[in-house]
Amino acid sequence: MGKNILAALIVLSGLFLSAEASVLKGKAVDEISTTAPKDIISVYVSKKVSLSDGTVLEKGYILTGKMQDVTPPKEWHHNASFTFIPTSYTDSDGIKHSINKEIRGTYRQKMQPDYKHSEITVGNMLFSPSYIDDTKKIINGESKEVWDDYANRSTPWGKGVQIDIKPNETIYFNFPD
């Protein structure tokens, strides 16, 4: 029985390893936003990456493509998302090359700690930077806004966030291998 479980684990780990994706790290050429999505976006390639069609993108290349499948943020903290379909790239000599095969890259969120809305409990005492902000709002008679803001960021049913990448800000995409 133990050998069967071990064999199953080895097979499953092989399946997960083969499902890896290439990660494209880049910097936005222009603003990329799900609030006001553009048809075409461009990204400076920050690290060498190979796409599934054999295209090798070197650091410094500019990758251009379509922004599609834009989904707005939803309840349960589902953030906005979109798909990036490269159509061409410009190499370091300024020569533009077409990408004929449709390769779909998905926006990869950068996880960041949220120190402003975090809290520490020691015994019966609660320390939270947001507690002070919320208390000030309650004193000013804005208790409904306090609840909406709190519910949006702190409860399981809160709404996700839009994607707003400024020019030269780092962005990541997962491309299939």
- Give the helices and strands as they follow along the chain: HEEEEEEEEEEEHHEE
Mean pLDDT: 75
Walk across the major sheet and give the strand order: 1-3-6-7-9-13
Identify low-pLDDT runs. 14-19
The CATH architecture assignment of the largest domain turns out to be: Beta Barrel
CATH class of the largest domain: Mainly Beta
Written account of the structure:
The protein has 177 residues and is of the alpha+beta class. The chain folds into 2 domains: 21-112 and 159-176, Lipocalin; 120-154, no CATH class. It has 3 helices and 13 strands; from the N terminus they run H-E-E-E-E-E-E-E-E-E-E-E-H-H-E-E. The protein has a 6-stranded antiparallel β-barrel with strand order 1-3-6-7-9-13. A two-stranded antiparallel ribbon has the order 2-12. It is globular.
Structural descriptors:
2 domains; 35% strand; Lipocalin; alpha+beta; 177 residues; single chain; six-stranded antiparallel barrel; 3 helices; two-stranded antiparallel sheet; 13 strands
Secondary-structure blueprint:
Layout: H1 2-18, E1 21-28, E2 32-33, E3 40-45, E4 49-50, E5 56-57, E6 62-71, E7 81-90, E8 96-98, E9 105-108, E10 120-122, E11 125-127, H2 129-139, H3 143-154, E12 164-165, E13 170-176
Antiparallel strand pairs: 1-3, 1-13, 2-12, 3-6, 4-5, 6-7, 7-8, 7-9, 9-13, 10-11
